[in-house]
What we know:
Blueprint: H1 2-12, E1 18-21, H2 27-32, E2 34-35, E3 53-57, E4 87-91, E5 95-96, E6 102-103, E7 107-108, E8 114-115, E9 118-120, H3 128-143, E10 149-152, E11 167-168, H4 172-184, E12 187-190, E13 193-195, H5 207-226, H6 279-285, H7 315-323, H8 340-345, H9 362-370, H10 385-404, E14 447-449, H11 450-453, H12 457-502, H13 518-521
Helix pairs in contact: 1-3, 5-10, 10-12
GO molecular function: identical protein binding; metal ion binding; tyrosinase activity
Organism: Penelope pileata
InterPro entries: Di-copper_centre_dom_sf (IPR008922), LE_dom (IPR002049), Tyrosinase/Hemocyanin (IPR050316), Tyrosinase_Cu-bd (IPR002227)
Amino acid sequence: MFLFTMGFLLVILQPSTGQFPRACANTQSLLRKECCPPWDGDGSPCGELSNRGTCQRILLSLAPLGPQFPFAGVDDREDWPSVFYNRTCRCKGNFMGFNCGECKFGFSGINCTERRLRTRRNIFQLTVSEKDKFLAYLNLAKNIPSQDYVIATGTYTQMNNGSNPMFRNINVYDLFVWMHYYASRDTLLGGSNVWRDIDFAHEAPGFLPWHRAFLLLWEREIQKITGDENFTIPYWDWRDAENCEICTDEYMGGQHPTNPNILSPASFFSSWQVICTRSEEYNSQQALCNATSEGPILRNPGNNDKSRTPRLPSSSEVEFCLSLTQYESGSMDKMANYSFRNTLEGFADPRTAISNISQSGLHNALHIYMNGSMSQVQGSANDPIFILHHAFVDSIFERWLRRHRPMLEVYPAANAPIGHNRENYMVPFIPLYRNGEFFIPSRELGYDYEYLQEPALGSFQDLLIPYLEQARQIWPWLLGAAAIGGIVTAALSGLVMACRKKRGGTSPEIQPLLTESEDYNNMSYQSHF
């Protein structure tokens, strides 16, 4: 009955669109470089009459970037979104959205004043009906056009600087596939030239905040199209898994009986078509992915290159990664050593935290292990396992935030690769979000993880670690203070003894300040930090 209802919704819901706000995907908005659509509630731009927000010039970060991208003025994503728009809605209070028509993550109600906390759960802890509902929601998202957004099918130059808009509609699920592609695509330099060492969502500090925002926006869209305000993304805990436990027809699709590279015809997802997987073709044509169907989802888990990824990640590797105290380090890219971000992303060895791009650890290991659509960065979100995987990666990020409790200043303000400084706006999100806005605990964004709520042996340790780390940092000062205190005490004691001798010698009742007793010799000051 539930699946019938989902099918009925597909019929009655009217078509809509994809990534750039539909209301701003027109010649007038592009030529004026303004994206300040009216809020339906009062008809004014950004809901200004209702004090929800105002149309204002965007404030771009002027902090210097790293050396990885040696160009300027050649990529529409530079100083996002200023190539397309330099005026957007700036929302007030807890309002959010490209027209300030929604609530910030973690808030709800007519005036967005009610705090709300949702819980993401392990997919294997869902009831059969909850799991089936999740699968039906995915299928609905793949088949219903987005109401609010469209995608760009050409660069700003190809649009004749805005006078010839090039946009098209897209379904809700593929909207997010396209956004992931657009953030990670190569720079088109003209002719047959491209620049590959650029990525606004990977290989740099923004990797974790970007995907955190991505999942929240995806979750929000599912809530909107289904009317299920309580929906949350489930996660797959892949630690110590011996195989792809969710690769069954009951969950995310089993293997085809005669072709192991595609999904079983009994799976929900066997009929899905992928988009944005042919990067070399787009590069040779100097074109953007236009969301044309490119074939079925490919997946052959475990039949990957074992020399690069011998197995799925282990619990001990996750724990080592969590012990790293530096969020980012060095060049702040995939060559960074002792970086929590780089180790979790998978470019550094999960046992040493030393960069090793010939191997794929943690996050990257799962992508390579899937041996198919998931294994190619730009099109990896085509496989719905992507959502479950990144929800768990985000939970590890959350554990690190809770354990180390970093200040916002820990996130690099300058010299990160292009698009990854703290105050840079994330590509290609509109409304605008800065990287630093998602470098905060998940509860402040309105969600938590089921396994992080449960009391466990690790929870008390996670609570103590930030204090132990602070104590470790000040321990040399404590030792120095103790030594100075001991010297001062000894000097004062000697002075007191001298004074007493002057008064008439040592009385039998007076005991030495320090004794050579067994108890004293057994005393010691030890650091367990």
